[in-house]
Amino acid sequence: MVKWRRWATCTAVAISMISSVHAETVDLSTLFPEQTVRSCGSASEPLRLSKNEPLVLIVHGCFASEGQFKALSEVYAELGQQTACFEYDDRRRLDDVAADLIDAANTLSPVLGDQKLTVLGHSQGGLITRRAATDHDSDGKHIIHHPLEIATISAPFKGIEVASHCGTTWLRVASLGIVDAICYAVTGAKYLDIPPQAEFIEMPGELLPQLDRHLIIKTDEVNTCRIQDANGQCIKDDYVFSLTEQSKSRVDRSVQGQAITVHAGHAEIVGNETVTPWKLIEVLQRYGLMATPDPSDVETFTMSVNRIYQRFI
Question: How far is CA 298 from the centre of its chain?
Answer without folding.
Answer: 25
